[in-house]
Structure formats: C-alpha cells, structure tokens
C-alpha cells in the first residue's frame, strides 16, 4: 500500500508542479536513486565495496555522448549501448578481482575510476577535455517526459533489483555477505554470483549515466570523478546497506537535503561524512530502520482511533 | 645517455617518495588487514600542518616538521582507537569509515584553508650539480629523508621489542596474544607509525607542489598501485614496486607525456592480478 501510494505521488507530482527547477531536482533524485540501488546490489549485499561506481556511470555517459555526436544515434540506442558497455566492463573488472579475497576489488574499482577521470581530461580529442562534450541530443523534448522516463526507469531498476534480491540469487548474495566460506562449503561458486551481481550493478549504473548525459545535454569529466562514487556510497550507506529500498530512500533524502543546504556549501560534505560514520555506529541499517520505526509508531496509533 | 641518467636520478627520487608513502599503507594492511583509505589524508595533513606551523605560526622549520609528524601520528592513533577498533570484525565498515574520514578531512581543510593552494617555503635552497644534471636540494632532501625513514622503520621492526611485536601480530594474531602481546595496542601503534610516515612524505614534498584539500587522492592511488604490484602486506615488495614505478613513471613522462604514467599503472595492476595476484613479493593468503 505504501509503495502504491508513493508511486501515485511520484507519477502525480508533475501534474501539480509546473516549476522546471523542481522537476529537474526530482529528476536528479530519481537518477541518484538508481545509482544508489545499483551500488547496493553488489556492495550492500555481499560487502565487496565498490569505490569506483563513477567509472561505469561516467564511462557509459561518455560512450553514449560520443556515439550520439559522431554517429547521430538517438538516445533510444545510445542508452542501452551505454548499459551494455558498462556491463562488459563490469564483467572484466569483476572476473579479475572478485575471485580474490581482500581489498583488490575496492582498489581496482577505485583505480579504474581515477584513470577514467584523468583520461577524460587528457583525451580532449575524444572526450572534450576539461569542458567535456556539449550538444548531446536531449532525452525528450519535454521536462515532464524526462521526469516520467527517469521515474519509470527508477521504478523498473529498483523493482528488478529488489525482486532479484528476494530470489535465490539474492539469498546467495546475502549469504556471501554473511559468510563466504560457508557458501563455498555448500558447493556454491561464490565468484560467479558476485561477478553476475556486479554486471547487473554496472549495467544499471551505465544506463543511468547515459540517461543523465542526455538529460544534461552535456557530459564532462566530473561524471567520472571520485566525488560521484563517494556520493553514491554515502547515499547507500546512510539509507541502509543491503536493503535496496534503503539506498533509494537515502538518495531522495540526501538529494533534497543537498538542495536545501545549498547555502552552507562546502560544509555539506563535512556533515555527510559524519553522517556515514554515525550511521555505521548507531544504525547500520540506516535511515530505513528509522523510517520503518516511525511507520510502526504511527500506524497503531492511527488504527486505534 | 644523458636521458638515461636523468630518468635514473629523478626516478630514484620519485621512487623513494612513493616508497615512503607505500610502506605505511602496506604495514597497516599487513598487521591489521586494514585498507586505510585515509592514508593519503595523513600525507595531506602533514603538508597542511607544516604550512600552519612554519608559514602561519612562524616555527623554525625543524620544529614545524616535528610538530606536523607528531600531530599526524596522534590523528592516526585516534582514528584507529575511536573509529576502527569497535568495527574490527566488519571489514566493509572499516573501508567505509576510512573513506568517510578522508572526505571529512578534505572538507575540513577546505573550510579551514580555502580551495586555493598553499605554498610552503623550501627547506633547503639551491641546486646541486651531479652527473651533468642540476638537482634542487629539496629533491635531494626528499630522497635522503625517505631512504633514512625506511631504513629506520626496518631497524625498528627487526630490532626493537615494540617493533617485533608489530611483526608478531602481522604473522599470527593468536600466537602474539599467547606470548603476551595486546593486538589492539600494537594496531594503534602501527596506525600511528603509518600516519607519521605518510605525513613525512607529505611534508618533504610540500615545498615542491601546491598544498590543496584534494591532494590526498594522488598518493592514495599510488599507494594502492604499489602495494598491489609489490604484494599486499610486504614491506620489501612495496619498496621494490615503488622504485620500479618511479623509474617507469619518469621514463614515460620523459618519453611521451606526463599524462600517461597512470595508464602504465593500470596495465601493470591488471597484469599482476591476472598472473600473479599475490604480487611480486607477497605471500599467498588462504
């Protein structure tokens, strides 16, 4: 019921709000929600922390922008292409590093993203250097259509990830997070499941990145910057790792908070990084727990009336 | 020939500095299994504190350096004691906490000092002529201090009681507990040591570059690459890999462009992970 209500609000909002600025902000929130949920699918469930999600986001965005500008292919083609390329790189990075225990996965995702960022600034003849690529074909002609597209993709992606999370596949991923040795003892090829999860995670991040590039009509090096990877991680952790719904919640709360707190500028990240540490210490399941407690506290009171 | 000498000399300097950054990073991993994403932040902290003590408060250089190293070491111990110790059993939380700490320090520096680069005075002025090259004394200083610190670290670990207890915990935590070593104390000590080494690197290099809030990413990236190639947890491997990368980087930037060494790193990391995941001198872990 709650989900249906939220969906109704989500789809109804553009009918009430006519302000372009607000709709853009909400678009951004949907975009971050997709990113945080996709990050959570591997990292939250299995505990293999991905420090370079921006590699897939920015890489796919650059690819679709380049293909769009050079070959004139429309977003309908370039967005799936971006997702497919991200999935391919997810497979390569995953197959190399997820078979190893220890910090290799975290290190290599971090290094890939750092290098993509550098490359995007150096290779001006392909990626436009500091200024990035402008003049990318817009997503749709209307901000409302953009909004609906982003919302629908968010619902589809989160639904898919959540559904997978409830399936046998998700169960295995969560078991890997709890105790990988025990999983292997049961005869499960844990590496294969982790790589699959990473491919799904990368593909969805790539899709979102391509979408955002078209929406902005511009792709620049900042889409591959560490701070984007860090932001996605912060949203997922504060929202509640390993729950898919939590990171989505975290993305909405933090995107809106980011806007409200615009006046304090740089202090925001100071607050977020503190919030991450506090979350881990006080409520590892994040905002989700707080939200569900609130619901639980309000619900009986209402039914009693 | 001239080019070869140049690559050798400047590659050695670069390599020594990288080694100084990487030994601390690999040490805390070897001892506590901690991947410290705030390692680069200690490097940054060292540079900012030197700027504060010497440039703002007007301490003599030696006192400024000593104070910066000591304060960073305290920060390292604090990070371990208050944020990491309670989360020891959850490695993914440890990773996230160190990242959050790194971001926190970056923004704290931004708020405190602003986004623009701060300039630290060179410790020693002038150039030395060697083999037809002119090398700034500051670079000679970087090289000497780095090597000295690494040798002292090795002597400390091999020959003192406190150092041996670090090696003991790295080898076998339970064994160390049986002979009366407290792993928590050793880990805090190692983190302090690791922070001090990173700070020293940041201090030595600070006159040669701008001190900015995002300068922690660069050494962290280098440290990651070095310890993967050298073998995680291996001090000797880290030193060897650091010099190797110092030469390669200098050669590539002389031969092609200063922008390409990062790609060499990436290729090197991938080759190592494919064919020899334990690194050049690492132990294979169960």
Largest sheet of chain A: 2 strands, antiparallel
* Beta-strand percentage range of chain B: under 5%
**Spatial strand order of the main sheet of chain B:** 1-2
Largest sheet of chain B: 2 strands, antiparallel
Overall pLDDT of chain B, averaged? Answer: 87
The count of β-strands of chain A is: 2
> Which bin fits the share of residues in helices of chain A?
over 70%
User: Any low-confidence stretches of chain B, pLDDT <50, length ≥5?
Assistant: none
State Rg of chain B: 19 Å
- Unreliable stretches of chain A (pLDDT < 50, length at least 5) are none
The succession of helices and strands of chain A, N to C, reads HHHHHHEHHHHEHHHH
Structure description:
The complex is a heterodimer of chains A (305) and B (286). By secondary structure, chain A is mainly alpha-helical. Chain A is built from 14 helices and 2 strands; from the N terminus they run ααααααβααααβαααα. Chain A starts with a helix and ends with a helix. Chain B is mainly alpha-helical. In chain B, strand 1 and strand 2 (133-136) form a beta hairpin.
């Amino acid at each position: 019921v709650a989900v249906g209500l939220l969906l109704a609000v989500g789809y109804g909002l553009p009918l009430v709000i006519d302000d372009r600025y607000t709709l853009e902000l909400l678009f951004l929130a949907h975009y971050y929600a997709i990113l945080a949920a996709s990050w959570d699918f591997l990292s939250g469930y299995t505990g293999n922390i991905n420090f370079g999600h921006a590699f897939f986001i920015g890489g796919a965005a650059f690819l679709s922008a380049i293909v769009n500008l050079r070959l004139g292919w429309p977003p309908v083609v370039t967005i799936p292409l971006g997702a497919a390329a991200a999935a391919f790189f997810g497979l390569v990075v995953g197959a190399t590093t997820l078979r190893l225990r220890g910090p290799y996965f975290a290190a290599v995702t971090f290094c890939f993203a750092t290098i993509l960022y550098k490359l995007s600034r150096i290779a001006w003849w392909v990626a436009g250097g500091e200024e990035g690529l402008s003049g990318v074909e817009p997503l749709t002609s209307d901000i409302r259509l953009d909004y609906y597209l982003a919302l629908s993709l968010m619902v589809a992606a989160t639904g898919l990830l959540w559904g997978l999370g409830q399936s046998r596949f998700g169960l295995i991923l969560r078991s890997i997070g709890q105790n990988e040795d025990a999983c292997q003892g049961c005869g499960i090829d844990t590496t294969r499941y982790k790589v699959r999860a990473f491919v799904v995670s990368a593909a969805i991040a790539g899709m979102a990145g391509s979408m955002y590039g078209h929406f902005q009509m511009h792709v620049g090096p900042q889409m591959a910057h560490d701070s984007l990877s860090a932001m996605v991680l912060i949203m997922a952790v504060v929202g509640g790792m390993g729950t898919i719904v939590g990171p989505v919640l975290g993305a909405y709360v933090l995107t809106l908070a980011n806007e409200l707190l615009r006046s304090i500028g740089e202090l925001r990240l100071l607050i977020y990084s503190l919030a991450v540490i506090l979350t881990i210490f006080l409520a590892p399941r994040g905002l989700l727990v707080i939200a569900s407690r609130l619901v639980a506290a309000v619900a009986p009171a209402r039914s009693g009336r | 020939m001239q080019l070869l000498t140049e690559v050798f000399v400047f590659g050695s300097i670069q390599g020594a500095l990288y080694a100084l950054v990487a030994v601390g990073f690999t040490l805390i991993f070897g001892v506590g299994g901690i991947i410290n994403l705030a390692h680069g932040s200690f490097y940054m902290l060292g540079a900012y504190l030197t700027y504060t003590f010497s440039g703002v408060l007007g301490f003599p250089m030696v006192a400024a350096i000593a104070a910066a190293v000591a304060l960073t070491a305290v920060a390292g111990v604090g990070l371990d004691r208050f944020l990491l110790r309670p989360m020891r059993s959850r490695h993914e939380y440890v990773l996230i906490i160190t990242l959050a700490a790194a971001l926190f320090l970056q923004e704290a520096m931004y708020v405190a000092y602003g986004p623009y680069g701060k300039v630290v005075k060179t410790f020693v002025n002038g150039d030395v002529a060697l083999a037809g090259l002119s090398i700034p004394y500051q670079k000679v200083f970087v090289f000497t201090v780095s090597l000295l610190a690494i040798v002292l670290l090795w002597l400390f670990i091999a020959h003192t009681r406190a150092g041996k207890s670090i090696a003991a915990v790295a080898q076998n935590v339970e064994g160390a507990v049986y002979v009366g070593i407290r792993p928590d104390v050793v880990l805090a000590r190692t983190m302090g040591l690791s922070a001090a080494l990173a700070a020293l690197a940041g201090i030595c290099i600070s006159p040669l570059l701008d001190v900015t809030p995002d300068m922690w990413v660069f050494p962290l990236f280098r440290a990651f690459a070095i310890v993967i190639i050298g073998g995680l947890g291996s001090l000797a491997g880290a030193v060897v890999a650091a010099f190797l990368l110092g030469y390669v980087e200098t050669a590539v930037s002389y031969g092609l462009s200063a922008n390409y060494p990062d790609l060499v790193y990436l290729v090197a990391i991938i080759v190592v992970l494919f064919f020899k995941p334990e690194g050049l001198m690492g132990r294979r872990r169960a």
